[in-house]
UniProtKB/TrEMBL annotation, chain A:
PANTHER family: INTERMEMBRANE PHOSPHOLIPID TRANSPORT SYSTEM BINDING PROTEIN MLAC. It comes from Zoogloea ramigera. Residues 1-23 form the signal peptide. Keywords: Signal. Pfam families: MlaC (PF05494). The lineage of its organism: Bacteria, Pseudomonadati, Pseudomonadota, Betaproteobacteria, Rhodocyclales. This is Phospholipid transport system substrate-binding protein.
From TrEMBL, chain B:
Transmembrane segments: none annotated. The lineage of its organism: Bacteria, Pseudomonadati, Pseudomonadota, Betaproteobacteria, Rhodocyclales. Residues 1-31 form the signal peptide. Residues 250-277 have a biased composition (Low complexity). GO terms for biological process: intermembrane phospholipid transfer. The keyword Secreted does not apply. This is Phospholipid-binding lipoprotein MlaA. Residues 236-277 are annotated as: Disordered.
Protein backbone atom coordinates (compact mmCIF):
# COMPACT_ATOMS: atom_id res chain seq x y z
CA UNK A 1 0.00 0.00 0.00
CA UNK A 2 2.65 2.49 1.02
CA UNK A 3 4.64 1.26 -1.92
CA UNK A 4 1.80 2.12 -4.28
CA UNK A 5 1.37 5.50 -2.67
CA UNK A 6 5.02 6.41 -2.91
CA UNK A 7 5.00 5.23 -6.49
CA UNK A 8 2.04 7.46 -7.25
CA UNK A 9 3.72 10.37 -5.55
CA UNK A 10 6.88 9.79 -7.54
CA UNK A 11 4.86 9.59 -10.73
CA UNK A 12 2.96 12.77 -9.96
CA UNK A 13 6.19 14.53 -9.13
CA UNK A 14 7.93 13.40 -12.28
CA UNK A 15 4.93 14.42 -14.34
CA UNK A 16 4.88 17.80 -12.68
CA UNK A 17 8.57 18.26 -13.36
CA UNK A 18 7.99 17.20 -16.91
CA UNK A 19 5.19 19.67 -17.45
CA UNK A 20 7.32 22.42 -16.00
CA UNK A 21 10.18 21.42 -18.28
CA UNK A 22 8.04 21.35 -21.38
CA UNK A 23 6.06 24.46 -20.62
CA UNK A 24 8.85 26.88 -21.53
CA UNK A 25 8.66 26.73 -25.30
CA UNK A 26 10.70 23.66 -25.76
CA UNK A 27 11.65 23.17 -29.42
CA UNK A 28 9.25 20.89 -31.34
CA UNK A 29 11.90 18.29 -32.19
CA UNK A 30 13.11 18.19 -28.59
CA UNK A 31 9.51 17.74 -27.46
CA UNK A 32 8.89 14.79 -29.76
CA UNK A 33 12.20 13.22 -28.79
CA UNK A 34 11.56 13.71 -25.09
CA UNK A 35 8.12 12.14 -25.18
CA UNK A 36 9.21 9.28 -27.45
CA UNK A 37 12.28 8.42 -25.36
CA UNK A 38 10.17 8.51 -22.23
CA UNK A 39 7.49 6.19 -23.58
CA UNK A 40 9.99 3.76 -25.10
CA UNK A 41 11.92 3.56 -21.84
CA UNK A 42 8.73 2.59 -20.02
CA UNK A 43 7.55 0.06 -22.62
CA UNK A 44 11.00 -1.55 -22.65
CA UNK A 45 10.71 -2.36 -18.97
CA UNK A 46 7.02 -3.18 -18.87
CA UNK A 47 6.48 -6.86 -19.49
CA UNK A 48 2.70 -6.44 -19.21
CA UNK A 49 2.54 -3.94 -22.07
CA UNK A 50 4.86 -6.10 -24.17
CA UNK A 51 2.62 -9.09 -23.70
CA UNK A 52 -0.39 -7.16 -24.94
CA UNK A 53 -1.95 -5.45 -21.91
CA UNK A 54 -3.83 -2.80 -23.85
CA UNK A 55 -5.31 -1.11 -20.80
CA UNK A 56 -1.88 -0.44 -19.38
CA UNK A 57 -0.73 0.88 -22.74
CA UNK A 58 -3.77 3.18 -22.88
CA UNK A 59 -2.91 4.53 -19.42
CA UNK A 60 0.64 5.18 -20.50
CA UNK A 61 -0.48 7.01 -23.63
CA UNK A 62 -3.05 9.06 -21.72
CA UNK A 63 -0.58 10.31 -19.14
CA UNK A 64 2.58 10.66 -21.21
CA UNK A 65 1.48 11.43 -24.75
CA UNK A 66 -1.97 13.05 -24.77
CA UNK A 67 -0.95 16.36 -23.17
CA UNK A 68 1.07 17.13 -26.29
CA UNK A 69 -1.68 16.38 -28.80
CA UNK A 70 -4.35 18.76 -30.06
CA UNK A 71 -7.32 16.51 -30.66
CA UNK A 72 -9.74 19.25 -31.63
CA UNK A 73 -7.39 20.18 -34.47
CA UNK A 74 -6.92 16.51 -35.43
CA UNK A 75 -10.64 15.89 -35.55
CA UNK A 76 -11.28 18.97 -37.65
CA UNK A 77 -8.57 17.80 -40.02
CA UNK A 78 -10.05 14.31 -40.24
CA UNK A 79 -13.62 15.50 -40.83
CA UNK A 80 -12.66 18.14 -43.41
CA UNK A 81 -15.25 20.45 -44.89
CA UNK A 82 -18.20 18.73 -43.19
CA UNK A 83 -16.83 20.09 -39.89
CA UNK A 84 -18.60 23.36 -40.61
CA UNK A 85 -22.05 21.83 -40.49
CA UNK A 86 -21.46 20.43 -36.99
CA UNK A 87 -22.74 22.40 -34.00
CA UNK A 88 -20.49 22.87 -30.91
CA UNK A 89 -21.96 19.85 -29.09
CA UNK A 90 -21.45 17.65 -32.16
CA UNK A 91 -17.90 18.93 -32.51
CA UNK A 92 -17.20 18.06 -28.90
CA UNK A 93 -18.71 14.61 -29.33
CA UNK A 94 -16.75 14.00 -32.52
CA UNK A 95 -13.50 15.10 -30.89
CA UNK A 96 -14.13 12.90 -27.90
CA UNK A 97 -14.95 9.79 -29.92
CA UNK A 98 -12.13 10.28 -32.41
CA UNK A 99 -9.66 10.76 -29.58
CA UNK A 100 -10.86 7.54 -27.94
CA UNK A 101 -10.52 5.65 -31.23
CA UNK A 102 -7.00 6.91 -31.92
CA UNK A 103 -5.80 6.30 -28.37
CA UNK A 104 -7.27 2.80 -28.35
CA UNK A 105 -5.81 1.83 -31.71
CA UNK A 106 -2.33 3.19 -31.25
CA UNK A 107 -1.97 2.11 -27.64
CA UNK A 108 -2.53 -1.36 -28.98
CA UNK A 109 0.19 -0.77 -31.55
CA UNK A 110 2.50 0.13 -28.67
CA UNK A 111 2.15 -3.40 -27.29
CA UNK A 112 3.86 -4.59 -30.48
CA UNK A 113 7.02 -2.65 -29.70
CA UNK A 114 10.07 -4.94 -29.93
CA UNK A 115 13.42 -3.22 -29.55
CA UNK A 116 13.05 -0.95 -32.53
CA UNK A 117 15.45 1.98 -32.59
CA UNK A 118 14.17 5.46 -33.34
CA UNK A 119 16.30 7.93 -35.27
CA UNK A 120 15.48 11.61 -35.10
CA UNK A 121 16.20 13.57 -38.25
CA UNK A 122 17.52 17.14 -37.95
CA UNK A 123 14.68 19.65 -37.90
CA UNK A 124 14.35 21.72 -41.05
CA UNK A 125 12.61 24.85 -39.84
CA UNK A 126 13.17 28.55 -39.42
CA UNK A 127 12.97 30.00 -35.89
CA UNK A 128 9.87 32.02 -36.80
CA UNK A 129 7.97 29.00 -38.16
CA UNK A 130 4.79 28.10 -36.33
CA UNK A 131 4.01 24.91 -38.22
CA UNK A 132 6.75 22.27 -38.55
CA UNK A 133 7.30 18.62 -39.30
CA UNK A 134 9.53 16.53 -37.06
CA UNK A 135 10.88 13.53 -38.94
CA UNK A 136 11.84 10.25 -37.36
CA UNK A 137 12.68 6.81 -38.61
CA UNK A 138 12.02 3.53 -36.85
CA UNK A 139 14.71 0.95 -37.49
CA UNK A 140 14.29 -2.74 -36.89
CA UNK A 141 16.60 -5.68 -37.49
CA UNK A 142 15.99 -7.34 -40.85
CA UNK A 143 13.41 -4.86 -42.08
CA UNK A 144 13.25 -1.59 -43.97
CA UNK A 145 13.10 1.47 -41.70
CA UNK A 146 9.66 3.00 -41.31
CA UNK A 147 9.33 6.76 -41.60
CA UNK A 148 7.22 8.42 -38.90
CA UNK A 149 6.65 12.18 -39.10
CA UNK A 150 4.90 14.48 -36.64
CA UNK A 151 3.24 17.73 -37.64
CA UNK A 152 3.19 20.31 -34.86
CA UNK A 153 1.95 23.84 -34.60
CA UNK A 154 2.72 26.50 -32.06
CA UNK A 155 -0.07 27.58 -29.76
CA UNK A 156 1.02 30.45 -27.58
CA UNK A 157 4.13 29.15 -25.89
CA UNK A 158 3.83 25.46 -26.53
CA UNK A 159 3.91 23.14 -29.49
CA UNK A 160 1.17 20.61 -30.08
CA UNK A 161 1.09 17.62 -32.38
CA UNK A 162 -1.85 17.73 -34.79
CA UNK A 163 -0.91 15.01 -37.26
CA UNK A 164 1.16 11.83 -37.37
CA UNK A 165 2.29 10.33 -40.67
CA UNK A 166 3.48 6.75 -40.95
CA UNK A 167 5.32 6.00 -44.21
CA UNK A 168 3.90 9.24 -45.51
CA UNK A 169 0.33 8.33 -44.63
CA UNK A 170 -1.48 10.72 -42.32
CA UNK A 171 -3.25 8.72 -39.64
CA UNK A 172 -5.64 11.65 -39.42
CA UNK A 173 -6.59 12.62 -42.96
CA UNK A 174 -6.69 8.95 -43.86
CA UNK A 175 -10.11 9.00 -42.19
CA UNK A 176 -11.52 11.77 -44.33
CA UNK A 177 -12.99 9.55 -47.06
CA UNK A 178 -14.78 7.22 -44.67
CA UNK A 179 -15.95 10.09 -42.46
CA UNK A 180 -17.34 11.75 -45.57
CA UNK A 181 -19.20 8.55 -46.46
CA UNK A 182 -20.72 8.41 -42.98
CA UNK A 183 -21.79 12.06 -43.07
CA UNK A 184 -23.39 11.61 -46.50
CA UNK A 185 -25.24 8.55 -45.27
CA UNK A 186 -26.39 9.71 -41.84
CA UNK A 187 -25.30 13.29 -41.25
CA UNK A 188 -22.93 14.39 -38.48
CA UNK A 189 -24.94 12.39 -35.94
CA UNK A 190 -24.53 9.31 -38.12
CA UNK A 191 -20.76 9.75 -38.01
CA UNK A 192 -20.81 10.22 -34.23
CA UNK A 193 -22.84 7.05 -33.89
CA UNK A 194 -20.48 5.03 -36.11
CA UNK A 195 -17.51 6.22 -34.06
CA UNK A 196 -19.28 5.35 -30.83
CA UNK A 197 -20.13 1.88 -32.11
CA UNK A 198 -16.56 1.34 -33.25
CA UNK A 199 -15.21 2.36 -29.85
CA UNK A 200 -17.69 0.09 -28.06
CA UNK A 201 -16.62 -2.79 -30.26
CA UNK A 202 -12.94 -2.10 -29.52
CA UNK A 203 -13.68 -1.88 -25.80
CA UNK A 204 -15.24 -5.35 -25.80
CA UNK A 205 -12.26 -6.85 -27.63
CA UNK A 206 -9.95 -5.27 -25.05
CA UNK A 207 -11.99 -6.83 -22.28
CA UNK A 208 -12.15 -10.20 -24.03
CA UNK A 209 -8.36 -10.18 -24.20
CA UNK A 210 -7.95 -9.61 -20.48
CA UNK B 1 4.65 -20.47 -84.87
CA UNK B 2 5.79 -19.77 -81.34
CA UNK B 3 5.49 -16.08 -81.93
CA UNK B 4 2.03 -16.50 -83.34
CA UNK B 5 0.95 -18.42 -80.29
CA UNK B 6 2.32 -15.81 -77.96
CA UNK B 7 0.59 -12.92 -79.65
CA UNK B 8 -2.65 -14.88 -79.60
CA UNK B 9 -2.27 -15.34 -75.86
CA UNK B 10 -1.54 -11.67 -75.42
CA UNK B 11 -4.60 -10.77 -77.47
CA UNK B 12 -6.73 -13.02 -75.30
CA UNK B 13 -5.35 -11.50 -72.12
CA UNK B 14 -6.03 -8.05 -73.50
CA UNK B 15 -9.59 -8.98 -74.37
CA UNK B 16 -10.18 -10.39 -70.92
CA UNK B 17 -8.79 -7.24 -69.37
CA UNK B 18 -11.03 -5.09 -71.52
CA UNK B 19 -14.05 -7.20 -70.60
CA UNK B 20 -13.33 -6.86 -66.87
CA UNK B 21 -12.88 -3.15 -67.32
CA UNK B 22 -16.15 -2.80 -69.19
CA UNK B 23 -17.91 -4.81 -66.52
CA UNK B 24 -16.43 -2.64 -63.82
CA UNK B 25 -17.38 0.55 -65.60
CA UNK B 26 -20.90 -0.75 -66.12
CA UNK B 27 -21.22 -1.61 -62.45
CA UNK B 28 -19.87 1.71 -61.34
CA UNK B 29 -22.18 3.55 -63.71
CA UNK B 30 -25.09 1.99 -61.81
CA UNK B 31 -23.70 3.11 -58.49
CA UNK B 32 -22.32 6.45 -59.55
CA UNK B 33 -25.19 8.36 -57.92
CA UNK B 34 -23.72 8.04 -54.40
CA UNK B 35 -21.07 10.73 -54.91
CA UNK B 36 -18.23 8.26 -54.61
CA UNK B 37 -14.52 8.96 -54.53
CA UNK B 38 -13.48 10.87 -57.67
CA UNK B 39 -10.41 8.65 -58.10
CA UNK B 40 -12.34 5.43 -57.68
CA UNK B 41 -14.87 5.10 -60.52
CA UNK B 42 -14.56 1.29 -60.32
CA UNK B 43 -15.52 1.21 -56.64
CA UNK B 44 -18.14 -1.59 -56.85
CA UNK B 45 -15.73 -3.88 -58.71
CA UNK B 46 -12.89 -2.89 -56.39
CA UNK B 47 -14.97 -3.58 -53.31
CA UNK B 48 -15.81 -7.04 -54.64
CA UNK B 49 -12.14 -7.83 -55.30
CA UNK B 50 -11.28 -6.38 -51.89
CA UNK B 51 -13.77 -8.72 -50.21
CA UNK B 52 -12.31 -11.66 -52.09
CA UNK B 53 -8.79 -10.64 -50.99
CA UNK B 54 -9.92 -10.26 -47.39
CA UNK B 55 -11.27 -13.80 -47.38
CA UNK B 56 -8.19 -15.22 -49.12
CA UNK B 57 -6.04 -13.45 -46.58
CA UNK B 58 -8.11 -14.51 -43.60
CA UNK B 59 -8.30 -18.19 -44.50
CA UNK B 60 -5.11 -18.86 -46.43
CA UNK B 61 -2.41 -16.21 -46.66
CA UNK B 62 -2.47 -14.85 -43.11
CA UNK B 63 -2.53 -18.28 -41.41
CA UNK B 64 0.41 -19.43 -43.54
CA UNK B 65 2.27 -16.20 -42.72
CA UNK B 66 1.57 -16.77 -39.03
CA UNK B 67 3.11 -20.23 -39.19
CA UNK B 68 6.06 -18.84 -41.15
CA UNK B 69 6.47 -16.21 -38.44
CA UNK B 70 7.60 -18.95 -36.02
CA UNK B 71 10.80 -19.28 -38.06
CA UNK B 72 13.66 -17.78 -35.99
CA UNK B 73 14.35 -14.13 -36.75
CA UNK B 74 17.89 -14.68 -38.14
CA UNK B 75 16.51 -17.08 -40.74
CA UNK B 76 13.70 -14.69 -41.69
CA UNK B 77 16.27 -11.93 -41.99
CA UNK B 78 18.28 -14.06 -44.42
CA UNK B 79 15.14 -14.71 -46.48
CA UNK B 80 14.34 -11.00 -46.56
CA UNK B 81 17.92 -10.10 -47.46
CA UNK B 82 18.10 -12.68 -50.24
CA UNK B 83 14.99 -11.42 -52.04
CA UNK B 84 15.99 -7.86 -51.20
CA UNK B 85 19.32 -8.35 -52.96
CA UNK B 86 17.64 -9.72 -56.08
CA UNK B 87 15.31 -6.73 -56.02
CA UNK B 88 18.12 -4.18 -55.73
CA UNK B 89 19.07 -4.64 -59.39
CA UNK B 90 15.69 -3.44 -60.63
CA UNK B 91 15.60 -0.74 -57.96
CA UNK B 92 18.90 0.54 -59.35
CA UNK B 93 17.53 0.50 -62.89
CA UNK B 94 14.52 2.52 -61.76
CA UNK B 95 16.70 5.04 -59.95
CA UNK B 96 18.64 5.43 -63.20
CA UNK B 97 15.39 5.87 -65.14
CA UNK B 98 14.42 8.58 -62.64
CA UNK B 99 17.74 10.32 -63.17
CA UNK B 100 19.03 9.60 -59.68
CA UNK B 101 22.49 8.45 -60.72
CA UNK B 102 24.08 8.52 -57.26
CA UNK B 103 21.29 6.33 -55.86
CA UNK B 104 21.57 3.97 -58.82
CA UNK B 105 25.31 3.63 -58.28
CA UNK B 106 24.70 2.95 -54.61
CA UNK B 107 22.18 0.23 -55.55
CA UNK B 108 24.75 -1.31 -57.89
CA UNK B 109 27.28 -1.20 -55.08
CA UNK B 110 24.79 -2.91 -52.78
CA UNK B 111 24.30 -5.78 -55.21
CA UNK B 112 28.06 -6.11 -55.68
CA UNK B 113 28.81 -6.16 -51.95
CA UNK B 114 25.88 -8.28 -50.84
CA UNK B 115 26.23 -10.88 -53.61
CA UNK B 116 29.88 -11.47 -52.71
CA UNK B 117 30.79 -10.57 -49.13
CA UNK B 118 27.14 -10.96 -48.18
CA UNK B 119 27.18 -14.60 -49.36
CA UNK B 120 24.79 -14.43 -52.33
CA UNK B 121 22.63 -11.84 -50.64
CA UNK B 122 22.08 -13.70 -47.37
CA UNK B 123 23.54 -10.82 -45.37
CA UNK B 124 22.97 -7.14 -45.92
CA UNK B 125 26.54 -5.99 -45.43
CA UNK B 126 25.96 -2.98 -47.69
CA UNK B 127 23.58 -1.34 -45.21
CA UNK B 128 26.21 -1.76 -42.49
CA UNK B 129 28.65 -0.02 -44.82
CA UNK B 130 26.24 2.88 -45.18
CA UNK B 131 24.77 2.03 -48.58
CA UNK B 132 21.13 2.62 -47.77
CA UNK B 133 18.43 0.33 -49.18
CA UNK B 134 16.04 2.12 -51.55
CA UNK B 135 12.49 1.43 -52.51
CA UNK B 136 11.68 1.90 -56.17
CA UNK B 137 9.55 0.26 -58.85
CA UNK B 138 8.35 1.07 -62.33
CA UNK B 139 5.07 2.55 -61.04
CA UNK B 140 7.08 5.11 -59.07
CA UNK B 141 9.27 5.81 -62.08
CA UNK B 142 6.18 6.49 -64.20
CA UNK B 143 4.97 8.77 -61.40
CA UNK B 144 8.26 10.68 -61.44
CA UNK B 145 7.89 11.04 -65.21
CA UNK B 146 4.57 12.73 -64.59
CA UNK B 147 2.19 9.88 -65.44
CA UNK B 148 -1.00 10.36 -63.43
CA UNK B 149 -2.10 7.54 -61.16
CA UNK B 150 -5.38 6.94 -62.99
CA UNK B 151 -8.34 5.19 -61.35
CA UNK B 152 -7.77 3.23 -58.16
CA UNK B 153 -7.74 -0.50 -58.78
CA UNK B 154 -7.77 -3.46 -56.41
CA UNK B 155 -5.88 -6.42 -57.88
CA UNK B 156 -6.73 -9.98 -56.90
CA UNK B 157 -4.40 -11.17 -54.09
CA UNK B 158 -1.93 -8.31 -54.68
CA UNK B 159 -4.32 -5.71 -53.32
CA UNK B 160 -4.42 -1.92 -53.76
CA UNK B 161 -3.09 -0.43 -56.96
CA UNK B 162 -4.10 2.00 -59.69
CA UNK B 163 -3.90 2.02 -63.47
CA UNK B 164 -0.42 3.53 -63.51
CA UNK B 165 1.00 1.17 -60.90
CA UNK B 166 -0.61 -1.85 -62.56
CA UNK B 167 1.11 -0.89 -65.79
CA UNK B 168 4.32 -0.52 -63.82
CA UNK B 169 3.74 -3.89 -62.23
CA UNK B 170 3.66 -5.56 -65.63
CA UNK B 171 7.14 -4.17 -66.26
CA UNK B 172 8.27 -5.16 -62.76
CA UNK B 173 7.14 -8.73 -63.43
CA UNK B 174 8.99 -8.86 -66.76
CA UNK B 175 12.15 -7.76 -64.97
CA UNK B 176 11.68 -9.91 -61.89
CA UNK B 177 14.44 -12.55 -61.59
CA UNK B 178 12.25 -14.77 -59.41
CA UNK B 179 9.14 -14.84 -61.61
CA UNK B 180 11.30 -15.08 -64.77
CA UNK B 181 13.30 -17.98 -63.37
CA UNK B 182 13.15 -20.86 -65.87
CA UNK B 183 12.83 -23.83 -63.60
CA UNK B 184 9.13 -23.91 -62.71
CA UNK B 185 9.31 -25.66 -59.32
CA UNK B 186 11.97 -23.29 -57.97
CA UNK B 187 10.18 -20.31 -59.45
CA UNK B 188 6.87 -21.18 -57.85
CA UNK B 189 8.20 -21.98 -54.41
CA UNK B 190 10.42 -18.89 -54.39
CA UNK B 191 7.51 -16.67 -55.48
CA UNK B 192 5.33 -18.21 -52.76
CA UNK B 193 8.00 -17.83 -50.09
CA UNK B 194 8.54 -14.19 -51.02
CA UNK B 195 4.82 -13.46 -50.83
CA UNK B 196 4.51 -15.13 -47.43
CA UNK B 197 7.61 -13.36 -46.14
CA UNK B 198 6.22 -10.00 -47.23
CA UNK B 199 2.88 -10.80 -45.63
CA UNK B 200 4.51 -11.87 -42.36
CA UNK B 201 6.23 -8.50 -42.07
CA UNK B 202 2.77 -6.91 -42.00
CA UNK B 203 1.45 -9.06 -39.17
CA UNK B 204 0.61 -6.66 -36.38
CA UNK B 205 0.16 -3.70 -38.70
CA UNK B 206 -2.88 -5.47 -40.12
CA UNK B 207 -4.62 -5.66 -36.74
CA UNK B 208 -3.90 -1.98 -36.19
CA UNK B 209 -5.54 -1.14 -39.53
CA UNK B 210 -8.46 -3.39 -38.65
CA UNK B 211 -8.97 -1.56 -35.35
CA UNK B 212 -8.44 1.89 -36.74
CA UNK B 213 -10.79 1.75 -39.70
CA UNK B 214 -14.49 2.52 -39.77
CA UNK B 215 -14.66 1.18 -43.31
CA UNK B 216 -11.55 -0.82 -44.07
CA UNK B 217 -11.93 -0.50 -47.83
CA UNK B 218 -11.88 3.29 -47.90
CA UNK B 219 -9.21 3.34 -45.18
CA UNK B 220 -6.93 1.13 -47.26
CA UNK B 221 -7.70 3.09 -50.42
CA UNK B 222 -6.75 6.37 -48.81
CA UNK B 223 -3.71 4.71 -47.27
CA UNK B 224 -2.49 3.45 -50.63
CA UNK B 225 -2.90 6.83 -52.32
CA UNK B 226 -0.92 8.67 -49.66
CA UNK B 227 1.65 5.90 -49.40
CA UNK B 228 2.41 5.86 -53.12
CA UNK B 229 2.58 9.64 -53.33
CA UNK B 230 5.13 9.54 -50.52
CA UNK B 231 7.13 6.87 -52.36
CA UNK B 232 7.12 8.76 -55.65
CA UNK B 233 8.53 11.77 -53.78
CA UNK B 234 11.02 9.57 -51.88
CA UNK B 235 9.65 10.39 -48.46
CA UNK B 236 9.00 14.10 -48.73
CA UNK B 237 5.92 14.91 -50.81
CA UNK B 238 5.14 18.61 -51.24
CA UNK B 239 2.97 20.06 -48.47
CA UNK B 240 -0.10 21.22 -50.30
CA UNK B 241 -2.76 23.52 -48.93
CA UNK B 242 -5.57 21.46 -47.46
CA UNK B 243 -8.69 23.11 -48.88
CA UNK B 244 -11.09 20.91 -46.96
CA UNK B 245 -9.36 21.90 -43.75
CA UNK B 246 -9.32 25.58 -44.70
CA UNK B 247 -13.04 25.38 -45.18
CA UNK B 248 -13.46 23.55 -41.88
CA UNK B 249 -11.37 26.15 -40.12
CA UNK B 250 -13.59 28.98 -41.31
CA UNK B 251 -15.47 29.14 -38.00
CA UNK B 252 -12.98 29.09 -35.18
CA UNK B 253 -14.88 30.76 -32.28
CA UNK B 254 -16.31 27.38 -31.27
CA UNK B 255 -12.87 26.10 -30.29
CA UNK B 256 -12.66 27.18 -26.60
CA UNK B 257 -16.16 25.89 -25.86
CA UNK B 258 -15.21 22.66 -27.55
CA UNK B 259 -12.11 22.08 -25.46
CA UNK B 260 -14.13 22.67 -22.29
CA UNK B 261 -16.89 20.33 -23.36
CA UNK B 262 -14.40 17.62 -24.21
CA UNK B 263 -12.68 17.67 -20.85
CA UNK B 264 -16.07 17.72 -19.11
CA UNK B 265 -17.14 14.46 -20.74
CA UNK B 266 -15.83 11.54 -18.73
CA UNK B 267 -13.65 9.35 -20.90
CA UNK B 268 -15.02 5.84 -21.37
CA UNK B 269 -11.63 4.34 -20.51
CA UNK B 270 -11.54 5.91 -17.08
CA UNK B 271 -15.19 4.99 -16.53
CA UNK B 272 -14.62 1.31 -17.24
CA UNK B 273 -11.48 1.37 -15.16
CA UNK B 274 -13.46 2.50 -12.17
CA UNK B 275 -16.13 -0.12 -12.69
CA UNK B 276 -13.50 -2.82 -12.86
CA UNK B 277 -11.84 -1.90 -9.62
Amino acid sequence: MTKTLSLLAALALSLGVQFAAFANTIAPDALVKGVTDDVIAIVRQDKAIQSGDTRKAVDLVETKVLPYFDFAHMTRLAVGKDWRQANPEQKAALTHEFKTLLVRTYSNALTQYRNQVIDFKPLKAKPEDTDVIVRTEVRQAGAKPVQIDYALDKQGDSWKVYDVMVAGVSLVTNYRDSFGQEVRAGGIDGLIKSLKDKNKQLETTVQAKK
Amino acid sequence: MMKNNKSKLQRQALLRGAATLALGLGLSACAATGGGHPKDPLEPLNRATFQFNEQADRFVIRPVAQVYDYVPLPVKTVVGNFFGNLGDVWIGVNNLLQGKVAEALSDGGRVLVNSTVGLLGAFDIATELGLEKHDEDLGQTLGVWGVGEGPFLVLPILGSSNFRDTLGLVGDIYADPVIQHKEVATRNSATGLRLIHKRSVLLGADTTAEQAALDKYSYMRSFYMQYRLNQVYDGSPPRVKDFDDEEAQADQPAAPALAAADSATPSPTSATKESQE
